[in-house]
Amino acid sequence: MTDPEKLRGRALDALTAARARTAVLTDCVDDRDLTAQHSPLMSPLVWDLAHIGNQEEQWLWRAVGGRDALRPEIDSVYDAFEHPRALRPTLPLLSPAEARAYALDVRGRVLDILEGVELEGRRLTDAAFAFGMIAQHEQQHDETMLITHQLRKGPAALSAPKPPAAPDLSGLPAEVRVPGGPFTMGTSAEPWALDNERPAHARFVPAFFIDTVPVTNGAYMRFIDDGGYTDERWWAPEGWEQVRRHSLTAPLFWRREGGQWLRRRFGVTEPVPANEPVLHVSWYEADAYARWAGRRLPSEAEWEKAARHDPVAGRSLRYPWGDADPTEDHANLGQRHLRPAPAGAYPAGASPLGVRQLIGDVWEWTSSDFLPYPGFVAFPYREYSEVFFGSAHKVLRGGSFAVDPVACRGTFRNWDLPVRRQIFSGFRTARDAEDV
Ligand code: AVJ
Ligand code: FE
């Protein structure tokens, strides 16, 4: 898509949608809630709000527009690398009213730039990418703010309709065999793909089996009931260390009462639904469950091959269902619901081989470290991806119910520390196929 007017419209729509979601997340609580620290793991919501405006000022007003800085003195306060989240409440933060006014002022100026910028040739793709990157950035912080809402104590501030009911799963195989051979991993064509998704390259992946649906709460409860959290055999050494140090017995937000598992979700307590994908587990918990089940986590390449490889067309698709942008029939994305849909939902979103719910619902842990693809070039700044490459972070794939479609593709890569549990993380398991 290189029609400048289409690019302009797409950028405008993406920015507008992101700001509407930011408003939902920040207008539903009072100023005390916006400036409070609900967890040392997270920033006060008002930090995210002004950080969103500050990144937009830096990348669209200054870099694309070539204009002078509006508020250079606040850059350091909103630099994620300078201050750990736990210490952000001690910074001289903009007040909620100032943060809103700042983000609004930047947005007005940026829309003027978008209207006038010459979207031509090389300049077109660079400028269009910057607008797409900033829309994705805001949506990513909206997901971060939703995590803060989940950690927040007190009555519910957000609500949403329930996702679709559980489909009839009889006849659905438990696992799907993905044939061995090369496939195209990553992308060079997707205009808003971030640097770490690039470039497209051939990967050989031997045949393997992967779960048709994500691991459910019901399955995970069997691991718990079987003494999963008290048996060192299933755990990586650092995972076992975590279990003992924090006396872990279940996923985050679960609590046992009267022989039943309950969970607090966005201010409401409910019984843990057995048919929903498990949520708020660390990489160590996912890894331990898989070992207990006699299986393993899929590698990142296996996950992407299961999601994108079309054996009939002989190429990689943008999404499991094809090349069309996600609709409400394909996947649970965009905070339309405040929970994953039951396992097996969204049959229209299945991959060519029949794997379901790869996109949306829960982020899926993979066994892989976050590493650059061959030919990786940092763009537009090293701090987005490059400084995180290495063995400290594990890759998550597929997006959750909290991820907007603009920041979700078959190639999209997320990463986090293996101890993280407050994120919207789940998993599915895999195993080698004997034959290749
Ligand atoms: C890609 C989700 C790991 O939130 O740390 C936001 C995205 N980068 N601002 C994060 C991001 C800069 C990033 N993750
Ligand atoms: Fe950020």
TrEMBL record:
It holds the Pfam family FGE-sulfatase. Keywords: Iron, Metal-binding, Monooxygenase, Oxidoreductase. Residues 14-145 form the DinB-like domain. Fe cation binds at residues 51, 137, 141. Residues 173-431 form the Sulfatase-modifying factor enzyme-like domain. SUPFAM superfamilies: C-type lectin-like, DinB/YfiT-like putative metalloenzymes. One of its GO terms (molecular function) is iron ion binding. Its cofactor is Fe(2+). Pathway: Amino-acid biosynthesis; ergothioneine biosynthesis. It catalyses: gamma-L-glutamyl-L-cysteine + hercynine + O2 = gamma-L-glutamyl-hercynylcysteine S-oxide + H2O. Its EC number is 1.14.99.50. Signal peptide: none annotated. The keyword Metal-binding applies. Gamma-L-glutamyl-L-cysteine binds at residues 85-88, 416, 420. Catalyzes the oxidative sulfurization of hercynine (N-alpha,N-alpha,N-alpha-trimethyl-L-histidine) into hercynyl-gamma-L-glutamyl-L-cysteine sulfoxide, a step in the biosynthesis pathway of ergothioneine. Belongs to the EgtB family. This is Hercynine oxygenase.
